[in-house]
Every structure is written in C-alpha cells, then in structure tokens.
Amino acid sequence: xxxxxxxxxxxxxxxxxxxxxxxxxxxxxxxxxxxxxxxxxxxxxxxxxxxxxxxxxxxxxxxxxxxxxxxxxxxxxxxxxxxxxxxxxxxxxxxxxxxxxxxxxxxxxxxxxxxxxxxxxxxxxxxxxxxxxxxxxxxxxxxxxxxxxxxxxxxxxxxxxxxxxxxxxxxxxxxxxxxxxxxxxxxxxxxxxxxxxxxxxxxxxxxxxxxxxxxxxxxxxxxxxxxxxxxxxxxxxxxxxxxxxxxxxxxxxxxxxxxxxxxxxxxxxxxxxxxxxxxxxxxxxxxxxxxxxxxxxxxxxxxxxxxxxxxxxxxxxxxxxxxxxxxxxxxxxxxxxxxxxxxxxxxxxxxxxxxxxxxxxxxxxxxxxxxxxxxxxxxxxxxxxxxxxxxxxxxxxxxxxxxxxxxxxxxxxxxxxxxxxxxxxxxxxxxxxxxxxxxxxxxxxxxxxxxxxxxxxxxxxxxxxxxxxx
Length: 470
Ligand SMILES: Cc1cc2nc3c(=O)[nH]c(=O)nc-3n(C[C@H](O)[C@H](O)[C@H](O)COP(=O)(O)OP(=O)(O)OC[C@H]3O[C@@H](n4cnc5c(N)ncnc54)[C@H](O)[C@@H]3O)c2cc1C
Fold this sequence. Notes:
alpha/beta, globular, 26% strand, five-stranded parallel sheet, binds flavin-adenine dinucleotide, 25 strands
C-alpha cells in the first residue's frame, strides 16, 4: 500500500508553483520519500511563459500553446494531482485546510467539486502578482487590455486581428512590458503612443540612461509622452475606447494596453495572518519558508526577496526568480536542503533593435542604500567600429567611492548584441568584484563581437579611476 508522508498543497500553477511541485516530487523520489502533491490553479493554463506574450502579440510566436512549457496532462503524467479552474478562497492555518471554489469551465475534468476543503501538511503559496488597473473613468471599456495571462494576450490578439479598423494604439506605462507591447503594436501597423507619469521611460534606469531610451524610442517612431498622468478614458457609444484623457488633451486611441506594473498577490496570505514585509510581499526565509510558519512556503512574484547589494528586501516580479525560488522550495519540501541566494536586480528588454538592461543599483538607489558612489559611462559600439552593423551603445557602471566595488551597471544599445553584456556586470556585482577587476577580466574579443576593449570594461575602468581618485 502507498505510504504518504506529506500532503503538499500548492496554490498557483505557473512558474513558481509548478517548479516547486516538480522538484518536490523529484527530490522526494531520490530520497525514497513519498509525498502527495496537489496543485490548485484557477486559470486554464499551467507553466506558461507570460514573458513571451508581447512576442506572440507581435507575431513572432504562432499560437498560445507554443508558450506553454508543460501542459496539465504532462504534469498529471508526472504524478501531480492538478486541479484546473479551481481557486483557493481561504486558508485556515490552524485546521490546515484550504477552501476552494470552481471558477469557470476550463474544458478540464479534475474531479473537483465546488466548495471542497482540501487538507494539507505543507502549504505552498505561489499566487503571483496582480496587475495594477487604474481606478479611472472608463478604465473597463472595451478595447482596453491588461497583459498578464495568456487569455489577456489572446484577447489583445483577437482585437488586433478583428474586422474593426484599428489605427492608433496608446500604451499606458513605459516600463519593460509597456515598451515591449509598443513594439508589438507598431509591428501590427498601429501608430503607437506610450504615456507615463514619470519623467522618463524605464524608471529602473538612471535619468541619463533613461534619456537615451527616450531618444532612441522617438527615432523608432514611438510618440512618447512622459510626465503625463492619465486621467481617464473616453468611450464611444458602442462601449469601445476612443481616447486617453491627459492634462494635455485627449490622445485618440482605437486600442489601449495597460502596463503600469504589478503588486504581489497576497490577499489570501494576508487574510490567513501570514507576515507581509515592508514591500508588500510575503516574508520568507532563505529556504522559502514563510517566516514564523514551518508548514507554509511561498515563492515567485508574491514574495519579497533579499537584495544582495542593498541588503534590503525587494519585490522583483520576474520569471527568472520565480523558477529558481520554486525549485529551491521544492527541494526543501521533498526532504532535501536548498537556499535562494537573493537577487541583484538584473533585467533586460528590447523595443525593436533598441536593447536595454540593468543590474545592481542605480546611483540614487545606491545612495539610498547608504553607499557613497561614483559612476563611469562610455559611448562605444557593439562590434569593432569598422565592422558592418556596428551600432552605438552606452554603458554606465556604478561603483563605491574608495573601494571601487561594483554596485550596478546599465546598458542602452541601439543595435543587437548590446544588452546581454549585462550578464558580465551582473556576475561582477554578484561577486562583489571591484570595477578595475572587471576592466581587466579576460573577456572575449573578435571584431564581429566587440571593440578590442569591450564597452563594459571601459565603463568599469572609468568608474574605478573615479572611485579611487575622488
Ligand atoms: C507581459 C509580461 C512579460 C514578462 N516578461 C518577463 C521577462 O522577459 N523576463 C522575466 O524574468 N519575467 C517576465 N515577466 C514576469 C514573469 O512572467 C513573472 O515574474 C512570473 O510569471 C511569476 O511567476 P509566479 O509563478 O510567481 O506567478 P504567476 O506566473 O503569476 O502565476 C501565479 C498563478 O497563480 C494562480 N493563482 C493566483 N491566485 C490563485 C488562487 N487563489 N487559487 C488558484 N490559483 C491562483 C494564477 O492564475 C497564476 O496562474 C513578464 C510578465 C508579463 C506579464
């Protein structure tokens, strides 16, 4: 007879939740333990790449299914008891029970009936994040889209490919999702405006680097309106959006996409009395156990992570962390031991050929974290300047005054091959290298790939010189 030692219930069936589920089963099997893993997912998809949605909308990816790494059937074949279209509505920590309800028809038969209570020995919260929707007049009109789930992507694609004549798109939010969607809208032939209340696009960059993004976006034909707070949406008689109202007038719009950020989805956890940090994310220890609760775990967008440079908690809603944290959590649940080492805030994006990346702390962030900082910036090219296709790129390195410790770096490049260089900087920041060490590290060189001094190394050298002499 099967001996079940632990009943694990996981809420949320995407990156963090399914990584945890799979890794718990693998680890338990290796250790000869027996665990029963149940996953509750309110939507119709598992293990899907939200990161790929802008490229699907743009036309680079054919169908939603291409963005699904593992289907519910595949997970079930691996031994996971998966309940699709089932939402966790309440957690009772004392009774170790999750209350659930069936959300909608998903075309799946999971044998789960409405209002079932599910008991657990170990609970995992992997509920992700909630997109911020402005509480403004007209915000729920037809033609206004969020972009968090595959269903959101499908609904945007349906609008773009419908018989309705669409000429002008307005994207609200100039963060990475906003600019990726701006590219998609342009490639679908729409005149595209991006509106943001901040003074610059990509506020995760320093203002000087954000200014470069602005210049390049404008060269790409994107109408960028910064320092512009959206006040509402004008809606036609048929209920479809016709404009985005701003203090400078109404921007005509046949289609609006909202990309104004997300916050951790912690309602269930909060109502259960689990601890939230100052960032609004669930507080977890290095094993991803919820602080003060031995039988409750959490991972992904709903938690706060430890920032290795600022030494403070940070919410960084990225798939890269969700997958790693889920794996760490799963190892621990399966009877092994693993820890999540924290984040340094590395991120990368693009709009057409304009590439943007950052890691560590920007100048103001570093100051707020208590560092005295200098920076070094270089304008160079992606390849040797004499090679065909050499494109301009700018690198900024932020270092600690005196020690020259690498604190952060940012890259804006007008051509392919620039942004992924951030990974060398991320490694340097992660390992607390000094900028002069990065400047002399044995990085690769040949004319089609970089100038003889890679731009990253020149920026690091400049930052080091300033750090040691000022
Ligand atoms: C358009 C877009 C582009 C992105 N691009 C990138 C990128 O390029 N690089 C990158 O690193 N990251 C990117 N991200 C972020 C990345 O997708 C997320 O960080 C990642 O999906 C988080 O994984 P998660 O498992 O924590 O949460 P989610 O992926 O949000 O999964 C949470 C799941 O929990 C389910 N759920 C929530 N509440 C309940 C409940 N009460 N009961 C049952 N189920 C529930 C939800 O339906 C959802 O499926 C992008 C995100 C978007 C939206």
